[in-house]
Amino acid sequence: xxxxxxxxxxxxxxxxxxxxxxxxxxxxxxxxxxxxxxxxxxxxxxxxxxxxxxxxxxxxxxxxxxxxxxxxxxxxxxxxxxxxx
Length: 85
Known about the structure:
2 helices; four-stranded antiparallel beta sheet; mainly beta; kinase; transferase; Putative alpha-glucan, water dikinase; alpha-glucan, water dikinase activity
């Protein structure tokens, strides 16, 4: 058995990016999820708390927002180019 130990740093946002869309298996798309904070809500699989989007790899400037939570107060324009109103 292996154990991974990583130092935790204070961050504003945590994210996971899949290089293949896990929902469809489409390797021409990326799928990303972003949460405010250290990522506990992301890795804890709490429904409805992550901003998630899909983008074609050849059109990264035109992501399609899939889910977002108004309660999270996410504004990630500086980080991934997406702002929710």
